[in-house]
Specification:
Helix content: 25-40%
Strand content: 25-35%
Order of helices and strands: HEEEEEEEHEEHH
Number of helices: 4
CATH topology of the largest domain: PH-domain like
Number of domains: 2
CATH class of the largest domain: Mainly Beta
Structural class: alpha+beta
Strand order of the largest sheet: 7-6-5-9-8
Mean pLDDT: 80
Low-confidence stretches: 136-153
Length: about 190
């Protein structure tokens, strides 16, 4: 994988890791398709450090389609929202499939229902595609609170809520004033 341009690296979010990066590197100012653990990014570098960047998070991807040509092909990634599309032409044939396969693997890490790639092969070309599964919920690995998995049937007692607030204060996530205000609010409800 070629070294990523500074403008692209600057736009990665904390905890975002690049799984694959392909592009049309034969150009003086290449275009990139970057697959991360959170989203797909299109990066078009320009002269003098300028660039165009667009991305679609996995939860918003509607459909992915790639077609292999004689030497190079193209990739289209459509989002749920209008005008949310990434289209890149002139990609190496092997790179197209690699991006689609990497996206499938990243989406399957968070999808409730796994997706698979549809393939169609003819004499002169090959096509790959997948659509977003019919599910509406995906798992999230972004630092869920330890109590996030508690049942809705068993609300936390006031004592448990105060203990959690105290732990947050001890970790420096809330101030002592915020702790005291919330504690008073909880004690009034008891």
């Amino acid at each position: 994988m070629e070294e990523l341009p500074k403008g692209l690296v600057d736009n990665l979010t904390p905890g975002e890791e690049v799984s694959s990066c392909v592009g049309n590197f034969a150009l003086k100012n290449p275009t990139y398709i970057v697959v991360t653990n959170k989203r797909v990014i299109y990066f078009d570098s320009k002269f003098l450090g300028r660039y165009d960047l667009s991305s679609i998070p996995y939860s918003k991807i509607q459909q992915v389609y790639g077609k292999k040509g004689k030497m190079r092909g193209f990739l289209i990634i459509e989002g749920e929202e209008d005008c949310q599309e990434i289209k890149v032409e002139g990609l190496k044939n092997d790179d197209i499939y690699m991006v689609i396969e990497t996206m499938k693997n990243e989406i399957n890490k968070v999808a409730i229902e796994p997706i698979s790639i549809n393939r169609k092969k003819s004499l002169m070309s090959e096509e790959w595609s997948f659509s977003k599964p019919p599910e509406s919920v995906v798992r999230s690995f972004v630092g869920a609170a330890p109590y996030a998995m508690q049942s809705m049937d068993s609300p936390k007692s006031g004592v448990e809520q105060i203990r959690e607030l105290k732990a947050l204060m001890d970790e420096g996530l809330i101030t002592e004033e915020e702790f005291k205000a919330k504690k008073e609010e909880i004690l009034k409800r008891i």
